[in-house]
Amino acid sequence: MSQAFLTPKVSVIIPVYNCELYIEQAIESVLNQTYTNYEIIVIDDGSTDNTRQVLQPYMAKIRYFYQENKGLSATRNRGIKSAKGELIALLDADDLFLSYKLIEQVAIFDAQSNIGLVQSGWRVVNEKGEKIQDIEPWHKSPELDLVSWLKWKTTNPSGMMFRKEWLEKVGGFNEKLRRLEDFDIVIRLALAGCQATWFPKVAVCYRQHSSNMTRNLLAQTAVEEKILDELFYNPNLPPKIQQLEKELRYGSLIWNCWCLYKSSYFAEMADYLYKSLKFSSFSVLKTICNWLYYFQYYAALENYDFNSVFLHQLPEWQQLITKVIPNGLPMVSIVIPTYNNADYILTAIKSILTQTYTIYEIIVVDDGSTDNTYQVLEPYLNQIKYVYQENQGPSKARNHGIEIAQGKYIAFLDADDFFLPEKLAEQVGCFAEDSTLTMVQSGWRFVDEKGHTIKDVKPWENGAELDLENWLIWQATLPSAMMFRSKWLKLNGGFDQRYFGIEDLEIVLRLALSGEKATWLPRVCVCYRQRNSSVSGLENRQKITQELEKLLDDFFSKPNLPASISQIENQVKYRSLLWNSWRLYQAGNFSEMAAYLQKSLTYTSASTTEAICTWIELFSKLARQEGNQFNAYNFSQLPEWKKLISNTFNPVVPRVSVIIATYNNAHYILEAIASVFNQTYTSYEIIIIDDGSTDNTREVLEPYLDKIRYVYQENKGVSHARNLGLEMAGGEFIAFLDADDFFLPDKLAKQVAIFDTRPSLGIVHSGWRLVNEKGEKISDIELWHGSLELDLEAWVVWKPVTISMMFRRSWIKSAGGFDTRWHHGEDIDLVLRLSVNGCEAVWLPKVTYCYRQHHRNATRKSTHQAVSMMSVLDNFFSRPNLSVSIRKLEGKSRYYTLSWLAWQAHRNEDLVEMSKYLRQAVKYTPLSMTETIYHWIDSFNSLYQQYGYEFDAYALTNSDVWQQLMSEIVVK
């Protein structure tokens, strides 16, 4: 304890038993704390090693007590009774505090008087103190209430700090328990009403070594069951907790069974699994499948090599299954149709052999392969049923497999796909839960030819129900993700071979139309390999597109379709045409793509502009889903696309005028121009106003003079340059582009589409991306998430950033363009004037503009900028016709403006200038002085994060300038 304190605020209690190797490190970790108002209490629980001798050099710095061995709970309780501090921090003798542990937890207690317990995260280290991993439980358990303690058991005594009064209230640790005493006490504290919270930071090192007190797994499992038994036998337990008994106890048992399995306690594992049936909310079969799922899940989390075959062969497991399901588990027949897939089929088969569910048969139907498929399969012929047929297509091959299948359920696996380990267990579990099901489909994972992950596909997020309408709209089918009840497939003739490549869609439409029930297994269980030569791949895309048109025509021509289904025919055909247009584009069939896009216009009520925007957005989205990037510029240069657009649009004048004011930006301006050329929307003109550049801007632009309108003027500033561009503009809409920035490809298309739907609009605003000098992303600014309305009140307080806006030209002209008096803040002035006059603005909730950060940015000239911006505000608030509600916002507006200018000054390393603006901001703050100071620090930090920089709050707050500022404003 520091000599400056007579009574410590924190008592650090270290129970020790035979820990001579580590106790010194534990004590040093306390002595190294940045917080000093503490005492260290060491309770030696009858150590027989050299613990006492190791502690001798520290006796003046600790309070040392020796007792006969009584166990950890009794040892901690003696420390609590001896403690002088109002706060108790526990530290196991083999663990370590990180230097900030005490100061940060004490700060939480000081700030929240209602809190009785604060827990931090912890770092698992080995015997040498080397990091294994950081544990941050608040991500999965953000609340520390009774339910969370019971569900997640996120306890680590060395990470905890308590108010002593709460420990005394519940009688300290339960001395009858030799294990899980920390789990027990947090339950009792929560029941007593003690509120707990996270210190969401790793603050403790938790050492794993051979003599850890938590290593006796059997005893620990028994103790946990005892604790839970006592808890749920409590007649005064809140009803909310009583209702969770089954869920909590089931989860606890399964986790302990997994730990027992890893430690080879197979008989005990089986006993506890059997006990879990009492608490399961599933059927017996579904519960067994659920056990397998969690074993695989825990194994993946721990990178543990779980062998499900080994588990199923254990006598203890087999006895358990016989006990709970006398007739045994149902069999699944897995049908693999294959044609020339020798390179992939072994991966498919091995993915079945490693399933957690092992009651299956594998049927391989070789559809006339001419490669070495048979030779590859030969070593596995004793584990599969192999059938060869002349080439007849995948439908016939699957149907052949259906005919010979003996399982209660049938799953399909294309030979170039593969299952994830829990696939069969999870789907069998679904059938076990609902006897009315005919089919279950899971999600899937796109992988490349080498099996590397591209993207997970979770179609249930689009259509939660697998009913007829959703099958038609989303067409989300994948044979390898399906499992059927065998009886239905055999009775209904399997797959219809008339529809090549889309037989899976046909069968689910038939299934739904006949009233059979299907459901999602909302998990990704299959890997779907992307390659051009597969049946559904790009090489067959034109044929598949034709087949899909035929299928939809046949389907919607059926008599007696439900009215609700007939009504969505246009929607279904439109979506289908767009999807297949994308696939045709991928296959290089550009003429067919254009033809189908043109055809799609007959099935949509959207305007042509909206439809084109939809096409581009969809193509970009689908490319991202498949791990690729859609090159909108290359796409727009396709002759077939140009012809399509020409046939659709033939504008006499451009609709958008893109105005680029530039001064000495030769280095960047070509990238700016290229980003306009790269737009998916092509009805534009580019107007470049060279504001007296002295570099080689003109020479750089020379090759593009036939594609742009270029004007040179003597240097007059950006407002003059933009106004000249406005005078020249012929477009209905105006987009400004700074010469060192660039547009994202669909900016113009997206913003024009919104204007087309809202004739009254004057401004369409969007998000923007901060990029570095190389154009690399720093962060995206998406202000619409804050529900920021684009009205005058918002503009006045938060100030408009016009870089990503598009304007209706008539509105800007009516306002007289930019006010050339302002060298900075001219854009703020323009939007404020427009808004006062009633100009309506909306968000396009999308990032469309890249704003480059470099040393020459005009916004870095903070002194001149500040003068201009404050003058803009003076001018605005001097208007006689402002409403009372707007005038009331003047102080708030000036406060946020000055705070932002202060940050700019700090960014320019001008602390004196920063201090000046903060002093001025104090005059207008709507906050208390403490809140104001916190706001400055928080806003500085947020702004630096946006711009991709670290903010050193310590350096700022310890600077002489800051200290002087604080002394002045606090005195005031």
Word description of this protein:
The structure is a single chain. The chain has 972 residues and is α/β, with parallel strands linked by helices. It is 45% helix and 18% strand. The protein contains 42 helices and 27 strands. The strands form three sheets. Strands 1, 2, 3, 4, 5, 6, 7, 8 and 9 form a nine-stranded mixed β-sheet that branches. Strands 10, 11, 12, 13, 14, 15, 16, 17 and 18 form a nine-stranded mixed β-sheet that branches. Strands 19, 20, 21, 22, 23, 24, 25, 26 and 27 form a nine-stranded mixed β-sheet that branches. Helix 36 (862-877) runs antiparallel to helix 38. The longest helix is centred in the first third of the chain and has 19 residues, at 284-302.
